[in-house]
Recover the amino acids of this structure.
């Protein structure tokens, strides 16, 4: 369970204060697939950074199960993030000189697995996203949709409680984007993982069971 209470993030621009996230309350239950949607500047990306521990709120609390993230030291927060959160990005962020399998294996480096275990797990994860026959291909040898599937497999490498997908269809055509959203939905159902998609695309949002709309740093009903 993820619960936010009074979450606020304020930035200073000269003498002006800007509330990127403004006193937000939100609860997301285990296994939910949720889209956070809003126009540019609505605060959705800042909210994602706060929830994932990549940034600190100005005030308010973030609970992940029984852990209060905002009270953790940077070292402990990094550990929780590494163990409990997976990330999928718009730009894929794959290492161009590594194969699909090697990209997924690289994400497992902190876990202390043996090389054979990493390889076996990477192959299993690539099979889950429908790319078992592309494990030896470099990113340049794959389509955008295939690269995003590799990125999803990489995000699952630590078996996270939460998967954050920041504009995961932004660099894809509409048909491929729909396939990626369907894949994330199926993985959420099958694995029981919470998946939070940040998007400005209303079509993407409407493909999810729950939509959280943002405007000017607040929830917009």
């Amino acid at each position: 369970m993820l619960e936010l209470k009074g979450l606020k993030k304020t930035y200073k621009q000269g003498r002006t204060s800007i509330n990127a996230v403004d006193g937000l309350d939100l609860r997301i239950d285990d296994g939910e697939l949720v889209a956070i949607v809003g126009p540019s500047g609505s605060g959705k990306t800042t909210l994602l950074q706060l929830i994932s521990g990549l940034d600190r709120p100005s005030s308010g609390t973030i609970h992940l199960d029984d852990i209060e993230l905002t009270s953790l030291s940077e070292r402990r927060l990094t550990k929780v993030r590494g163990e409990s959160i997976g990330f999928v990005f718009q730009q894929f962020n794959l290492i161009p000189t590594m194969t699909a399998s090697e990209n997924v294996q690289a994400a497992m480096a902190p876990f202390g697995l043996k090389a054979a275990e990493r390889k076996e797990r990477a192959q299993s994860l690539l099979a889950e996203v429908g790319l078992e026959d592309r494990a030896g291909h470099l990113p340049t040898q794959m389509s955008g949709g295939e690269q995003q599937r590799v990125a999803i497999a990489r995000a699952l490498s630590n078996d996270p409680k939460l998967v954050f997908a920041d504009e995961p269809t932004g660099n894809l055509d509409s048909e491929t984007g729909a396939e990626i959203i369907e894949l994330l939905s199926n993985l959420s159902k099958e694995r029981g993982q919470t998946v939070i998609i940040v998007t400005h695309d209303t079509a993407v949002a409407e493909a999810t069971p729950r939509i959280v709309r943002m405007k000017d740093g607040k929830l917009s009903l």
Observations:
- The longest helix spans residues 174-191.
